[in-house]
């Protein structure tokens, strides 16, 4: 049996010659491109995560409740801080006590503002720690600025820092205290991690290194206690 002859178009108004010509035209046409369903599906899933996660901490986006809290502190008593913009998540640290420490930063004229959630309970914004500070002369681009050691009343301590806008690229931060030392990589301009709580009167030392391992700067700070 001639398979091609069996499938060629037939109709009462078509001559055999015309029918064969139509078959040849079909066979010579390029095959339609198959849709890459897997890739399109993956892109859709990813988009869904971003949209659905607009209020999720893990995406790096700022939850609405945090954005609103930033705007509530705008203006203050003397018109500062204003404006407040560039809100970003700089620390998202799972703690050994089962809680989650999160810190957001925002820029303002001549300084920065910060909101801290040391409880992991974003339904209680009244428990957020809030602070704003003005840069001293030359401090805005100093890699030593904006680094903190924070602890909750009954939990471990967290160290974190944000190097957005500093004059030197910091690749790693080494933090040490009384009998301990930790090293943290800087990712997307920030670092964060858990360290031993220690005594609030103890000093904590920070050392900043570039990507070649050369030390850029040092700083010593004391702990700030975050009550619940």
| SS-based class | alpha+beta
Helix content: 10-25%
CATH superfamily membership: Immunoglobulins
Number of helices: 4
Which consecutive residue ranges, at least 5 long each, have pLDDT under 50? 1-11, 26-59
Instruction: Report strand order across the widest sheet.
Output: 1-2-3-4
CATH domain class name:
Mainly Beta
- Do you know the CATH topology? Immunoglobulin-like
Strand residues, percent: 35-45%
N- and C-termini, Cα separation: 86 Å
Series of H and E elements: HHHHEEEEEEEEEEEE
Number of strands: 12
From the structure above, extract its key features:
228 residues, alpha+beta, Immunoglobulin-like, four-stranded antiparallel sheet, four-stranded mixed sheet, 4 helices, 19% helix, disordered N terminus
Q: Your description of this structure?
A:
The chain crosses the membrane at residues 41-62. Keywords: Membrane, Transmembrane, Transmembrane helix. The protein has 228 residues and is of the alpha+beta class. It has one domain (62-226): Immunoglobulin-like. The protein is 19% helix and 36% strand. It has helices at residues 3-7, 16-28, 37-52, 64-72, and strands at residues 84-94, 100-108, 111-117, 129-134, 147-152, 157-162, 172-177, 180-185, 190-195, 203-209, 215-222, 224-226. The strands form three sheets. Strands 1-2-3-4 form a four-stranded antiparallel β-sheet, with helices on one face. A hairpin with a 5-residue loop joins strand 1 and strand 2 (100-108). The protein is globular.
């Amino acid at each position: 049996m001639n398979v091609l002859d069996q499938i060629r178009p037939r109709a009462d108004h078509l001559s055999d010659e015309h029918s064969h010509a139509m078959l040849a035209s079909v066979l010579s046409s390029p095959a339609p491109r198959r849709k890459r369903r897997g890739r399109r599906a993956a892109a859709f899933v990813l988009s869904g995560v971003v949209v659905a996660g607009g209020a999720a901490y893990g995406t790096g986006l700022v939850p609405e409740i945090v954005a609103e809290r930033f705007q509530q502190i705008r203006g203050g008593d003397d018109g500062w801080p204003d404006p407040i913009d560039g809100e970003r998540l700089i620390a998202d640290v799972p703690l050994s006590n089962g809680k989650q420490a999160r810190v957001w930063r925002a820029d303002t004229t001549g300084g920065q503002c910060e909101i801290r959630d040391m409880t992991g309970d974003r339904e209680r914004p009244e428990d957020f720690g809030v602070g704003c500070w003005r840069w001293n002369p030359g401090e805005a681009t100093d890699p030593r600025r904006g680094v903190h050691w924070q602890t909750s009343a009954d939990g471990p301590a967290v160290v974190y820092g944000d190097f957005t806008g500093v004059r030197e690229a910091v690749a790693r931060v080494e933090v040490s205290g009384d009998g301990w030392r930790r090293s943290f990589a800087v990712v997307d301009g920030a670092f964060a991690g858990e360290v031993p709580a220690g005594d609030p009167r103890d000093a904590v030392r920070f050392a900043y290194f570039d990507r070649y391992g050369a030390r850029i700067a040092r700083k010593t700070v004391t702990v700030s206690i975050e009550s619940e």
